[in-house]
Amino acid sequence: MKNRLIQTFIAILCTLPFFNKIHAQAKIICGTHDLEELDKRQTENMEFLARNPLQQRAPIYIPIAIHLVGDNNGAGRVSEYKVIEQMNQLYKDYVKMGAIFYLRDSTFYYVNSTRIYNTPETSVSVDSMNRLKKGNCINVLYLKLRRLLVHLV
């Protein structure tokens, strides 16, 4: 199966130069545009926009699941106050673009796991963090030393 796949791949690579020659024979003339026509279309577009101003679209609401990770006893978590401050800054930064971030389920998710807290980079911790993910939102995990891991779901 693997040999057949390699043979097919090589056969495709060998035929590519022939397609290039066929394509190269086709005469493609670079088009020129009638400047008067372009000017007319631009004027029409500007008049249309003057008659029909762009409507501000409705804001897009983006849920965020905040996971506050501590050790097995719950110690070492970043404070909720700090997270709320960061959420407020996120709001200020993106509200003009129509994006409003909010806490999913209006709550924080508390995680007590020394393994995730101390060694989030290990495969076991990554698997554990993946199981924490909430659906249809941005998942943010706050860990030791205020490291921030963001998981998009």
Shape assignment: elongated
Order of the strands making up the biggest sheet = 2-1-3-4
Q: What is Rg? A: 28 Å
Terminal CA distance: 35 Å
Number of helices, where a helix is a run of at least 4 consecutive DSSP H or I residues: 5
Main β-sheet description: 4 strands, mixed
Query: How would you spell out the order of helices and strands?
Result: HHEHEHHEE
Helix share, percent: 40-55%
| Percentage of β-strand residues | 15-25%
Low-confidence stretches: 18-31
DSSP strand count: 4
Structural class call reads alpha/beta
Q: Which whole number gives the mean pLDDT?
A: 77
Structural features, described:
With 153 residues, the chain is α/β, with parallel strands linked by helices. It has a domain of 93 residues. The radius of gyration is 28 Å and the shape is elongated. It has a four-stranded mixed beta sheet, sandwiched between helices. Helices cover 46% and strands 23% of the residues. The longest helix is centred in the first third of the chain and has 24 residues. About 9% of the residues have low confidence.
Outline of the structure:
By secondary structure, this protein is an alpha/beta fold. Helix content is 46%, strand content 23%.
Topology summary:
Layout: H1 2-25, H2 35-51, E1 60-70, H3 80-94, E2 99-112, H4 114-118, H5 123-132, E3 138-142, E4 148-152
Parallel strand pairs: 1-2, 1-3
Antiparallel strand pairs: 3-4
Summarize this structure as a short list of keywords or feature phrases.
5 helices; about 25% strand; alpha/beta
